[in-house]
Amino acid sequence: MDHFLFIETNTTGTGTKAMKIAKLKGYQIHFWTNDPDQYKQVAANHPLQLADYVKIVDTYDVDAMINLVQTASYHFAGILAFDDYHLIPVSRMAHFLGLPGHPLEALTIARYKEKTRHFLQKNDIGFRQPAFHTIENPSELSKDIPYPCVLKPVDDSGSCGVTICQNQGELMQALSKEMKRLRNKRGYKLKRKWLVEEFINGEEYSAEMLYTANGWELISTTRKKR
């Protein structure tokens, strides 16, 4: 029987839906997590109950996970992640093992906000974006920053750590608070880098993309409530 590996999952249910689909297709499900307690709030379709095998491992240590996969007595047909923080580790594992996965360079540009901004700035593809600064400490705050502005960590998600600042005092206060936040709620070690962006007033939309055998496909766009 073929085996499928899930490295963590999200708490919205899409990851466990994928587990169910994989089980229906006959796969044995392996679920690796660094902390089972982070899924306590999942009432239905708990990943630990759906998985055939559960392993507690540091899911941010790619080399350790590759070593575990190489020494396993079974072959994994695929590896998946369903949260932002494990996309790159899973991509690295998939490429190392010769399994299907996202292109690592493109995924890195999409994953880290400052890399997205610099890529769009460097490549003139007609995409308009706000003025921005990348900073690693308060001394790098520029006097040219327009207010209001938005402070955001380059590698967190779900709007965590995002603050609208009306003036320099609020920006310094928000940055000071962020610099004390070393890990997020999923245990992910945050990069010590932030974006300060020009605030743009208006409606906000999100675009949901899916990478398939035909490349990236737009699944839906969502208008966000204010």
From TrEMBL:
Coiled-coil parts of chain: none
Record-linked InterPro entries: ATP-dep_AA_Ligase, ATP-grasp
Domain ATP-grasp, residue spans: 119-210
Keyword ATP-binding: yes
Keywords per UniProt: ATP-binding, Ligase, Nucleotide-binding
Domain of life of the native organism: Bacteria
Pfam families to which the protein is assigned, alphabetical: ATP-grasp_4
Name under which the protein is recorded: ATP-grasp domain-containing protein
Taxonomic classification: Bacteria, Bacillati, Bacillota, Bacilli, Bacillales
